[in-house]
Write a structure and sequence with these properties.
heterotrimer, A alpha+beta, B mainly beta, C mainly alpha, A: Alpha-Beta Plaits, five-stranded mixed β-sheet, two-stranded antiparallel ribbon, 8 helices, 13 strands, C: 72% helix
């Protein structure tokens, strides 16, 4: 019996000894790995800040996890959205002549540097005999969003006001949402997007997407909550020279175009036979399209601007 | 700094095309609205970030400097007039000038605007069990102004929705009366209306705001509070919480037992 | 005194590598190092080092991942299903199958991490995981399957380790490991009771988990709307394909090991014959699913499906598609229907074709669909319409395959490839040293 006890002690000591050696090696190894992968090692020691959570309990939060939120007029939770609103957009295909001002304004204001504009104007022709038309396509902010359903980490989310946003601090870059979206509106930051000093210095918040953008995460049109907060309309709406876009609140049954004209939404959709893209998929988009009949401007006017293999100029970062 | 002014020649300056509009919002503020454009490469562009000096022309035709204002990225600026600016009983017409002076990008120039003061009041009342909005337009001395076109709008998140006809002309009492028949949605049933005299040659633009809780309260229809397949993890559908977890438990409990069995084997008394 | 039992142990005990084994390990390590260099570049620069872009958003990494998940199912097939059916000829193959399964499922986990844009945020999967997401289901089932597979690998090793601690031609240190890992196995009635019940329980448990793991992986595609993926067939289709790939892998590995370790007495022509027949059966089932998957949509030819099928049958991916189907499925069936085809060497060659065909079949499932989104591809660089993996992507992929082979190699180095204990029981041999 004594023998066994001694043996046990010996083996226990040996185990601890081995364990310690392995532990030190692992620590050294991970330091080396961290250096290889370019992480700064002083990120380890972090301060904590004491905050009160929503149910009144005090908690310690790493100061690195607190995002300073830019000055907001209305105090609201970016994950919950504006109360008592449901944002919709109407795109009048009869007016679009592929001017691409929407795309350049969106690119500029979101400091988009890659080849991937968030709003694309497609040259569409439903079948051989039907008329061709230009279709500006942006995130549809679906009411049953397939992208949100499949996100494993709650990085993309749907708000109370209907807007679907992405939290680029949470996204793990699995791209499942991109595979799930039938409208091909999501883009990926395949490399480090250098967007210039201004963009990089703006504190990040999910409701001003892409500013700054993060490598290895997904981005898309956000319906510009940062503009809504200021009482203004999304950039594409204001930038369009032909008043193709109208934007508004479904509960108010009103949408307003870039020139400031307001329309009663339900009447507009009835009179002009508004429809939604890929309605049969059941995604319930928040973007309505007015068919390109009785065109205001000819389709051919847009052909000069049509670039099959690139989007419009990007912002100044690259 | 972003701006819609792209490339420009260092020596050649653009000529700005400026329009001024006097706007008064009753019981609130009055201002001179500036809209500046210039002829760019392809069509007109807004002249943003353009500074104007504002002067008032007094009875002796001399200029009184009031201040400066700069246009925003859409080429628009708003110069607020002080409340007592226009309380000079002697004058009936007021003149203001906006000047571009010593600007890098734009030639010097000046634009002027002149107007007289008028007042617009609006109210909502229930007549014959129908809500009606009424408005009265008078000049500075209280004399009603007839046959002046006004329009009525319902203020929405952006802009205002037209109520009724395009224009309503004031009658001999300077008033208009419009019934509000259709149900209109509003947050908590609150509706903000505006009666507008739009870009009148003599009186400028005058807006009178009135609100009343006669709207249909907005009912939120979002699924944000429900348990759906697109909710955050705090609102997982119950069947997903129950059945998968039961299955996982049903598989992992045996796994743990089987792992424990290894321990039992190792501790088994020999022979 | 050399008994039959001792002979058995001598034949089956793991031994040191010859120069050939060391060379093999060296080659694998080199491949892994090259891939690791590429991966470091990927972490630094981002996934831009691949040829994946906004349209071809999943590529070689994901098809590799599906391949690994598929191969890992073989553990449940050979070890569990056949065992529970009372089939005895598969006993010598259970260890090989389980080793392949464990190696494959580990590499499946590694491969999916390689595909992530932000692997540094992996913990988000656990801190903020959503049960609504098929990826979370996949994480859960893969972890579960890994644990069960390791248990199913370990349990039958207990008696083998106990034998090896006494008889193995190894250094004292290795024999100490065998001793420790044998968990005091002596073969008394209590241990045997726990042992047999546990293995039975594991065998039963692993089958639904194995089905779950590949069905859930299939759901990663089936839960999207895209033509080519939007199929109700996908779950069973993937499982049938997994069994084919796994069976092929077992045949390939068993041939190599038989030759290298001269195990002709234990893995005989009879075993090859049986595996050959099994492979034919599995291939026919998979062929049936392929017919359902590809022929009937052709009949309907909805707009999106038609474009997709055309690219597979006669278009951009035609060569790949037909080579994978014919070379990886049809020809093997034909060859294996003949007894001469089921002899070791021809069967080995056929199994290589099956495994390679299976890898490319997964590529065919993942990549072509992404070239045909619902809305036209316009306004993006022309190169985004095609996907041809970069050398770095290939080097990382080969590194994962090499890593899987390395895991198998290392396990083969230290574990008896054929279960000694079970074989001895079947042959009625008894360990003289044990009965004291």
């Amino acid at each position: 019996m004594q023998n066994n006890l001694e043996n046990d002690n010996k083996s226990r000591r040996k185990f601890l000894d081995k364990g310690l050696k392995i532990g030190v090696l692992a620590a050294a190894g991970s330091v080396a790995l961290a250096k290889v992968f370019g992480y700064r090692l002083d990120e380890g020691a972090e301060e904590t800040v004491e905050l009160m959570s929503t149910d009144g309990t005090l908690m310690q939060v790493l100061s690195s996890q607190i995002e300073s939120v830019p000055e907001k007029k209305i105090d609201y939770n970016p994950r919950e959205g504006f109360p008592n609103r449901k944002f919709v957009m109407v795109v009048d295909l009869a007016k679009c002549r592929n001017a691409k001002k929407c795309q350049s304004s969106c690119n500029k204001n979101h400091y988009i540097t890659g080849d991937n504009a968030w709003i694309k104007i497609y040259k569409m022709q439903d079948n051989e005999k039907s008329a061709p038309y230009w279709q500006p396509t942006l995130c549809q902010h679906c009411d049953e969003p397939p992208c949100v359903k499949v996100c494993p980490v709650d990085a993309t989310f749907k708000r109370r006001d209907g807007i679907v946003l992405i939290d680029n601090n949470r996204c793990i870059g699995c791209r499942f949402c991109m595979a799930a979206c039938p409208y091909s509106v999501r883009i990926f930051n395949w490399s480090d997007p250098w967007q210039g000093e201004k963009a990089e210095s703006i504190p990040y918040s999910p409701d001003y997407s892409g500013v700054p953008a993060q490598k290895g995460t997904v981005d898309k049109c956000d319906f510009c909550p940062h503009m809504i907060d200021k009482g203004e309309m999304p950039h594409c709406v204001s930038a369009c020279p032909n008043d193709v876009f109208s934007f508004g609140d479904l509960y108010e049954d009103t949408v307003t175009n870039g020139s400031g004209q307001s329309f009663q939404l339900s009447k507009l959709l009835k009179d002009r036979a508004g429809y939604r893209l890929m309605e049969n998929l059941g995604t319930a988009p928040s973007v309505y399209y007015l068919p390109p009949s009785n065109r205001v401007i000819d389709f051919e006017e847009g052909l000069d601007n049509y670039t099959e293999f690139k989007s419009v100029e990007k912002s100044e970062g690259i | 700094m972003l701006g819609s002014v792209l490339a420009y020649a260092q020596d050649k300056k653009y000529r700005a095309r400026v329009s001024l509009q006097y706007t008064k919002i009753m019981d609130k503020e009055s201002y001179i609205g500036i809209s500046a454009k210039y002829k760019g490469k392809d069509g007109f562009d807004q002249a943003s970030d353009l500074e104007f000096s504002i002067y008032k022309v007094d009875q002796n035709d001399s200029l009184i400097y009031l201040g400066k204002v700069k246009t925003n990225e859409n080429g628009k600026a708003k110069f607020l007039l002080a409340a007592d600016e226009l309380e000079n009983e002697e004058a009936t017409v007021f003149n203001y000038i906006a000047k571009i002076e010593n600007n890098e990008r734009f030639e010097d120039g000046e634009t002027s605007v002149s107007f007289s003061v008028a007042n617009l009041t609006a109210k909502i009342e229930m007549i014959d069990s129908v809500n009606q909005i009424s408005a009265v337009l008078t000049d500075a001395s209280g004399i009603p102004l007839q046959e002046v076109p006004l329009r009525v709008g319902l203020k929405r998140l952006y802009g205002s929705l037209q109520i009724g006809e395009n224009r309503y002309e004031t009658d001999e009492n300077g008033s208009i009366l419009i019934p509000l028949v259709d149900p209109m949605p509003g947050v908590d049933g609150n509706l903000n209306f505006e009666v507008v005299l739009n870009e009148n040659d003599t009186y400028g633009t005058i807006k009178a705001m009135v609100n009343a809780p006669i709207g249909v309260p907005v009912v939120e229809e979002s699924t944000f509070d429900e348990r759906t397949m697109w909710s955050p993890p705090t609102k997982t559908p119950l069947y997903l919480l129950i059945f998968p977890n039961l299955i996982i438990l049903g598989v992992w409990l045996p796994i743990l037992i089987l792992t424990f069995n290894l321990y039992r084997i190792s501790k088994s008394k020999t022979q | 005194m050399s008994t039959d039992f001792d002979q058995l142990v001598y034949d089956l005990a793991p031994r040191k590598f010859s120069w050939k084994g060391n060379l093999w390990v060296a080659i694998l390590v080199v491949i892994i190092l090259v891939g690791s260099y590429s991966y470091v570049q990927q972490v630094r620069q981002g996934l831009v080092i691949t040829d994946m872009r906004d349209y071809a958003l999943w590529g070689v990494y994901i098809s590799n991942f599906v391949f690994f998940v598929a191969i890992s199912l073989v553990g449940s097939l050979i070890t569990a299903i056949l065992r529970l059916s009372g089939i005895k000829w598969s006993t010598p193959l259970t260890r090989i199958a389980e080793i392949i399964a464990v190696a494959a499922i580990i590499m499946a986990g590694v491969t999916i991490i390689i595909d992530m844009g932000r692997p540094d945020r992996m913990l988000n999967l656990f801190m903020h995981g959503r049960l609504q997401s098929p990826i979370i289901w996949d994480v859960i089932v893969i972890t579960t399957y890994l644990v069960i597979s390791v248990l199913l690998l370990y349990y039958p090793l207990l008696p083998d380790f106990s034998i090896l601690k006494r008889h193995a031609p190894e250094s004292a240190r290795v024999r100490k490991w065998y001793s420790g890992l044998s968990l005091n196995w002596v073969g008394n009635s209590e241990q045997r009771r726990i042992y047999s019940r546990s293995i039975k329980a594991l065998s039963i448990l692993i089958i639904p988990v194995a089905f779950a793991i590949h069905t859930v992986t299939a759901w990663l595609f089936e839960t999207t709307y895209r033509p080519g993926w939007d199929s109700t067939n996908f779950g069973p289709y993937f499982i049938a394909g997994a069994f084919v790939a796994g069976a092929g892998a077992v045949v390939a590995v068993m041939y190599v090991l038989r030759k290298t370790y001269r195990l002709e007495n234990y893995i005989t022509d009879f075993h090859f014959n049986k595996m050959g027949k099994t492979l034919v059966l599995l291939c026919l089932i998979y062929l049936y699913f392929n017919i359902n998957e590809y022929l009937i949509p052709t009949y309907k030819s909805t707009e999106e499906e038609a474009v997709h099928l055309q690219s597979l049958f006669t278009g951009q991916y035609a060569t790949l598609f037909w080579t994978a189907i014919i070379g990886g499925l049809v020809l093997p069936v034909i060859i294996l229907l003949f007894p001469q085809g089921r002899k070791p060497l021809p069967l080995f060659l056929v199994s290589i074709a099956v495994v390679v065909g299976a890898w490319w079949k997964r590529y065919i499932i993942v990549v072509p669909t992404l070239s045909h989104p619902f809305l036209p591809i316009q306004g993006v660089p022309e190169s985004w319409r095609h996907y041809s993996p970069t050398w770095m992507e290939w080097s990382i992929t080969f590194a994962t395959l090499a890593a899987a082979l390395l895991i198998i190699t290392l396990l083969v180095r230290f574990l008896p490839i054929i279960p000694i204990h079970e074989t001895s029981e079947e042959r009625g041999l008894v360990d003289a040293a044990q009965t004291k």
